[in-house]
Amino acid sequence: MKAILFLFVGALAFSSTAQAEKDHHQCEEALSKLDAATDSQHTSDTHHQHQQAKEAKESGDYKRCADQARKALDGLKKS
């Protein structure tokens, strides 16, 4: 019974680590695209979202970072 619980906890920890690495990669990718796009144009909304994405990255919240960076990039594409 303990072995099954140990394996379950180990699999859960591995899954969480893999998701965190995926979120980190998506954050980096979205910020890179946003940085390239904002070199030429900025609006106050996208600037604010860009700052939020950077702050989220610095705090380690990579999922929020990627979401904010994508939102800012979408806003740039619409303007």
Task: Compile the SSE list and pairings.
Elements: H1 2-38, H2 44-59, H3 62-78
Helix pairs in contact: 1-2, 1-3, 2-3
Characterization of the model:
With about 80 residues, the chain is an all-alpha fold. The chain contains 3 helices and no strands. Helix 1 runs antiparallel to helix 2, helix 1 packs parallel to helix 3 (about 60-79) and helix 2 runs antiparallel to helix 3. The longest helix has about 35 residues, at about 1-40. It is elongated and about 55 Å long. The termini are far apart. The model has no long low-confidence stretch (mean pLDDT about 80).
> What is the C-alpha radius of gyration, as a whole number of Å?
17 Å
Order of helices and strands: HHH
The total count of strands amounts to: 0
What do the pLDDT scores average to?
78
Largest sheet: none
Helix count?
3
Q: What's the helical proportion of residues?
A: over 70%
Low-confidence stretches: none
Span of the ends, CA to CA: 59 Å
Strand content: under 5%
What coarse outline follows from CA principal-axis ratios?
Answer: elongated
Structural class: mainly alpha
In short:
The protein is mainly alpha-helical.
Which key features would you list for this structure?
single chain, 79 residues, mainly alpha, 3 helices, 89% helix
